[in-house]
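Incident review: delayed structure delivery

Summary: a single-chain prediction request sat in the queue longer than the usual turnaround. Root cause was a stuck worker, restarted by the on-call engineer. No data loss occurred. The affected request and its eventual output are reproduced below so the record is complete for anyone auditing the incident later.

Affected input:
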Amino acid sequence: MFNDRKADVLLADPISGTANVNTSDGTIIPPYFDPAPTENYSYHGPSALDYFYTGGPRQAVNLGWQMTLEYDEYPTEIQCSACWLNRFKLGFATQWGETYNEVTAQIWANMQRNCRFSADLTVYPALNLSGPSNPNRAAVIWTAPKSCAQNLTIMQTGNQSSTCDAFALQNSIPSASLIDFNDDLFCDDLGNKPYCAPLSCSVADVNTTIGVIQLLQTTPTYSNITLTQFVAWNPSLDINNLRPGEVVCIGPPGGAYVPPATTVAPASPTVYTTTAKPIGPTPKGAIPNCGKYYEVQPGDYCNLIALNSSITFSQLINMNPSIDSNCTNLLAGYDYCVAPVNGSVNAALFEEV
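Output delivered after worker restart:
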């Protein structure tokens, strides 16, 4: 109801301020006895807001009142909150929610007045029964559409017959999904027709009554499969009761992804045919037949220089013998040889003094 007065005044009203509701066809719905919303719900113990902050004694859903409350009868601190409004709107926006009729429309109008909303708030009910009958109203969809990744057909001749488990094993699909995807199956004798099925997978045949958790824990072959993976691969089964003969996926539908084999070709450094001329000083003992020099920068280290030059650490030392085995004596600003002429390293012909 619309509450624009104090609670004590409304409680004295035998119908708590609720007015008649006139439907579009002229039907008058009389008021019913119901409590009024309050600013502070103190006379029935802690308010819902108090309970939220203090964790006080648990209150019933009707906050102590002997009758079930409507949405517009809760304390305004509740019915005017964003959480409450979102829940109210969501409850009518889904086909699985509540029916919206003339009384509900009046309740929503009361809530907007109780909370003094200035914005234009609109509820779009999925099951709107207010107003005259609408012959074009969309029907409620009660079943979810099946996703057939493939259609499998049984082709039997003579007196042959196939069971659900045998057909599932033959086509590497879980038995539970075959049964779930196809209505009115007679699993002891499948007929010759197409059947909706998920993608094929690696399968196993259960040989005893067992739960999924116990199966994974007691079978070493499946110890690397998690419960989440198993349920994702077998969404239709009863995880507490796998039956003898049931076929289950032990790998992802469609098969596990196998990355393509890659071959890394060895680096082919450029071959220099002429001797390079260093720009800066060179370290003692550097080979004279050098095809390329590199000026060492502060922070460089041997492995980085070798990697960037497509050579090995040993080749770098052979071309620059002054480098010690731990590469602790690189000289910043010096030009070090990183590629010999024609790919051949010759010993130094002279020693700098």
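Verification: The longest helix spans residues 102-114.
Action items: add queue-age alerting; document worker restart procedure.
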